[in-house]
Specification:
The complex is a heterodimer of chains A (203) and B (234).
Chain A: H1 24-44, H2 56-59, E1 69-70, E2 75-77, H3 78-90, H4 97-110, E3 116-118, H5 131-148, H6 151-166, H7 174-197
Antiparallel strand pairs in A: 1-2, 2-3
Helix pairs in contact in A: 1-7, 3-5, 5-6, 5-7, 6-7
Chain B: E1 4-8, H1 12-23, E2 30-34, H2 45-53, H3 62-68, E3 74-76, H4 84-92, E4 97-100, H5 108-111, E5 116-121, E6 129-130, H6 133-141, E7 143-150, E8 160-167, H7 174-192, E9 209-210, H8 215-233
Parallel strand pairs in B: 1-2, 1-4, 2-3, 4-5, 6-9
Antiparallel strand pairs in B: 5-7, 7-8
Helix pairs in contact in B: 1-7, 6-8
Classes of the chains: A mainly alpha (203), B alpha/beta (234).
Amino acid sequence: MEYQYSKKDHFKFPEKYQRTSFKNLEFLNAYKKSREFNLENVNENVNENVNKIKKFKDISFKIENRNWKNSKKKDINTEKLLKFLFLNIIKKSSKEEILLNKIIKKFEIKKKIFESYNLEFKENTKKYSNLKNYILLSIICLFKFKKTKNLKFLNTSLKLNDLISSQIKRLIILEDILLYSFVIKKELEIIVILMSEKGVSNE
Amino acid sequence: MNKIGIILTPDTRSKAYITKIINNKIKIDEIIFLDDHREEEEFHKDVINESKKCGFDISKSVKNIILKNNLIVKKFDFVDINNSKLIKYIKKSNIEFFIFTGGGILKKDILNCKSKFIHFHPGIVPKYRGSTCFYYSILNENNCGVTSFIMDENLDTGDIIYQKKFDKPSHKFIDDVYDAHIRSETMLDLFNKKLFNKKFKKQNVKGNTYYIIHPVLKHIATLSCIMDLKNKSN
């Protein structure tokens, strides 16, 4: 069995996940294999150690906090916003929850993260292919799941990771590869723990 | 006595609702059938057997149930609850409460009708609003719940009539059978306990909205139901 949810190009064929079929434990094994294969794949393409980022806190050095709201242009730069959100959320600031929920809702409905939004959070560009945005939101969601155990965050992260994995050939920037590698490893770690907690195993 | 109606759509939930209404000899003042003449889905015999255990037959279409039981229904050739033809019809009706089995958000025009619309949502609100909440509830609480509420303009935020908890299923047909079963059982309680006259409870604005579940989480939730059963029998 193959894990089908990261095979097709999610930008061309957005995955809605409606009434997905049940395929027993084999499905979870196929999912794990697929993610591990992707990890090996990105690993081969870089000379650096892809395991450089081990904890969420290691990432804070990679991301600068910048101003995300441009009041002159009256728009929001999504990448800057996500970096801001990450830095604040990792510092245990819960004030950013509203913003995070807004961007999660946007992704869950449109299946895309646009590169900028207006101040009412409506997309004001047609560009949505910046993989960094998907990776950043996925990292934030996984971090929130680790802290809150709210499955809503893990759910969105799994979908984001499917989408990023469907674009794996486009991952060429070293920072993106390192972050992707980290987020996939974290996701797998969390899923294995969840399976064990729920008594779901091969034995 | 309150005047109660039901709006059916050609889907599994409606099959469960109308079958249980008939089998429990519940008086319904008006039946509306929104039928887009979609192709009837075919089900494996295991799903059919499980649905029968839950008090309805998933292989029988809503149309056939209506015909077989000589039910008087008002039919429309669409399934959109916000369609102007339906609104025009409902505005003239004297029904106090319509049970709406389908999905979607009601827009202003239909909400401005005198009739109120009752929805059975498979989640205990405000903690479980949104989509596929039964899976999240199985993972979090090891059980599920249904909330019946008066529909308003937002998603799952209406005044609560009644909430009921259910054990998680012991089978894998959660989308097809379990969902329809727990919603229709909650509907029966509303009639049997005469809850339509009760004072409805306002919801806390704060809550949690879930989006459609990812297949990995869906598999863990479903397998946790089946494997739990295997472990208990060993």
